[in-house]
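Propose amino acids for all 123 sites.
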C-alpha cells in the first residue's frame, strides 16, 4: 500500500479501542486479527508509539473482576522525534473517568528571554 504522507512533524492521539501487544490487556484476548490490522496501520504510516512509563493500562471498566487495557496512545512520526527528541508521555490521575488522561510534554524551551518593555512613566 502506498500512502501520501506529509513529511513534517505530526502526532496522532486518541482512544484507538485496540491493543498492540498482549501485555496491553490484563486478560487474554481473542481479537488477534484486529491487533494485526492495527499493527499494519502503524507500520504503513511509520508511526512511533510513545512509551508510557508510569502506567501499564489507560482504561478500566471498574467492575468486581476489572478488565484493564492500554487503549489510549500517542503516536508520532520520526520527523517529530528529530525536532522534539525530548518528548515524553505520562498518565494523569483518573478521578472519575474510565480512561486515563494522557499528557505529552515536548520539553521544548518556551520562547527566549523576556523582551525589554519601555514604560512611559520613566520619562
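Proposal:
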Amino acid at each position: 500500500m502506498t500512502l501520501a504522507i506529509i513529511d513534517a512533524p505530526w502526532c496522532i492521539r486518541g482512544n484507538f479501542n485496540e491493543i498492540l501487544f498482549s501485555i496491553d490487556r490484563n486478560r487474554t484476548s481473542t481479537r488477534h486479527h484486529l491487533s494485526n490490522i492495527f499493527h499494519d496501520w502503524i507500520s504503513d504510516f511509520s508511526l512511533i508509539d510513545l512509551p508510557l512509563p508510569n502506567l501499564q493500562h489507560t482504561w478500566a471498566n471498574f467492575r468486581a473482576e476489572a478488565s484493564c487495557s492500554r487503549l489510549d496512545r500517542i503516536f508520532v512520526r520520526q520527523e517529530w522525534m528529530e525536532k522534539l527528541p525530548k518528548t515524553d508521555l505520562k498518565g494523569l490521575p483518573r478521578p472519575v473517568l474510565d480512561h486515563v488522561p494522557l499528557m505529552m510534554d515536548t520539553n521544548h524551551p518556551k520562547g527566549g528571554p523576556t523582551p525589554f518593555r519601555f514604560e512611559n512613566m520613566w520619562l
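The chain has a mean pLDDT of 86. The chain has two helices and seven strands.
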